[in-house]
Amino acid sequence: MDKFRMIFQFLQSNQESFMNGICGIMALASAQMYSAFDFNCPCLPSYNLAYGMGILFVPPLVLFLLGFVMNNNVSMLAEEWKRPTGMRQKDPAVLRYMFCSMAQRAMIAPAVWISVTLLDGKCFMCAFSTSVPVEKLGNGSYTGLSEKEMKRILARIPCKEIYSGQELVAREVAVRYLRCISQALGWSFVLLMTMLAFLVRALRPCFTQAAFLKSKYWSHYIDIERKLFDETCTEHAKSFAKVCIQQFFETMNKDMAMGHTHSPEKAPSEVGEEKEKLLGITDQGTMNRILKSWHKCKPPLYLHQEALQNGNGWAGENEHHNDISPPKREMVTYYSKV
Amino acid sequence: MDRFRMIFQYFQSNSESVMNGICGLLALASVKMYTSFDFNCPCLPKYNMVYGVGIMFLPPMALFLCGLILNRQSLVMLEEWKRPTGGRKKDLAIIRYMCFSIMQRAMIAPVVWIIVTLLDGKCFICAFSSSIDPEKFVGFANITPTQIQLLLSKVPCKDDELMKNHTARKAISRYLRCWSQALGWSILLFLIVVAFLARSLRPCFNQAAFLQTRYWSNYIDIEQKIFEETCCEHARDFAHKCILHFFESMQQEIKLRRFNAPREAEEGEAEEDHLRGITDQEQMNKLLKSWYYSKPPLDVSQATQRQPMDRERPSVPWADSLSNRGNTPQTAKSSRQTDV
Lengths: 338, 340
Description:
The complex is a heterodimer of chains A (338) and B (340).
Chain A: H1 2-12, H2 15-36, H3 45-69, H4 73-82, H5 92-106, H6 108-120, H7 122-128, H8 134-137, H9 147-154, H10 171-203, H11 209-259, H12 272-277, H13 284-296, H14 305-310
Chain B: H1 2-12, H2 15-36, H3 47-70, H4 72-82, H5 92-106, H6 108-120, H7 122-128, H8 145-153, H9 161-164, H10 168-201, H11 207-257, H12 263-270, H13 281-293, H14 301-305, H15 331-334
Helix pairs in contact in B: 2-6, 3-5, 3-6, 3-7, 4-5, 5-11, 6-10, 7-10
């Protein structure tokens, strides 16, 4: 379990590693989807090609876009691209790096789908069964058939039960032929992809490695900065909410104390701590009033300064919420001329 | 188990992750429901379409409503929408943002159901087998239209005697299935393109306002949670005090009745006395009966002040009878209206 925890933490450590994990999962899901998908060739002349090509290319497109959608860096890239320059210059090399790394990862699942489809062969067979060279494989001199009729017969090659053209061309021959070509294409595709990946990786350091290292660093930096900013905002919201609610209870207590003429103001010191935990609410009517007030009249988003200075360490900072505007101003300490 | 705990903790880390987790679970449940559902086409002329379309659209609606119900944020959003303005103005942008985010998450499981249904094909075949053009297929010549309709409606049922050995049955099935899968993939592609555009073009439009809206909607969620936690803690302490008070009052009563046994009173009080002076069956029975027949009033102000017990106080019913004790002036807060 320790190993698993380590892997989990490593994958979570930054967005790139996380995306590597997602990428692997999607590749596996792609293979699984293919095997679960019930391929169903229509065996009709004009439909075969459309169906076959559709199954070969539409799911990869879906997987490619899904790879982008699941990557949080997409919105980060768009944000970085569109932001006003402000006090921090923009570096197009960083944007290019981000985009390339996202695109590379998103391409893996589609490549897996296409390879698996071609290596399996059903799809290719369905799409190109009408293009089988009858002269080479079968009885080319089988006359008496119009072009359309021949196409109709050939279109049924993928469907074993209804194939009626055994005299024209034997079904097993055609199937083997088509499958052979499909697998050859599949393996060539796999080889091509692997070669490309190898070249990109091996030749990368030959071209402007220093600039590349810079781009990689600053793109990680932007990712981490954004995550930290979101975490800081969440922490701030928590503290803000706690103080706001505390002040709400105090205000309600004060208001109610003004209305009570007979309730004693001073409590014995030894029950001070317990009274504090009860926030001064000691009976049903008071609690009901507080709950009603919480709904009917929520407190304003304004924290009293004196309570803050006695409490946590936000003293001195301006708590007006309309000054809590997004970010770049507060991050001026991270300024650098990349 | 450690693994699950870690995954659980990761998803619990913030409210959005919880929602994502629930969303994923609903999607998986949707797929599982579909595979375990025993699809059973009626194979009758008018019923096919109704059944097929019903199976395609009713479960998604149920899943959508489920997704809305299970999402805590929908209650938060409704509350924010419906609350009186009071001391805090309402910002419609926040409500819109929350609404969108809830809808997006709730739509995933229905969409998964519809796509799995289309990719599988049974439903589509059942619904549309009577609507195809019989000219395209062999075996339908010289038959009356009503007979054709009857035959076509039996296409989805493999074991039906009328259509079992019909030449066109498989061809029609394949044809419809091809259309069903093409439709399924097209819908999936369309939705993914929309999701991609929405995600990548989001920062191009009014990003600053978006960040503000996101912060404040997160704030409202957190505030609600912390308020509930505060109320829970308060209720716990309140209950603790109330019960202590009750036991003490019972103890007093027992002491008053036991003139001949004053010796235990001083000894037991020095240490942590969980027995609270109740040391035999009869006393305990009396206490339990009293707890049922005459619960103490919801008022521990005397307990915290340690004043002498006033047992003549009438028990207070649950209704808000103490609210007339001092109408809290709401005007004190209304002068501080700020924007959210």
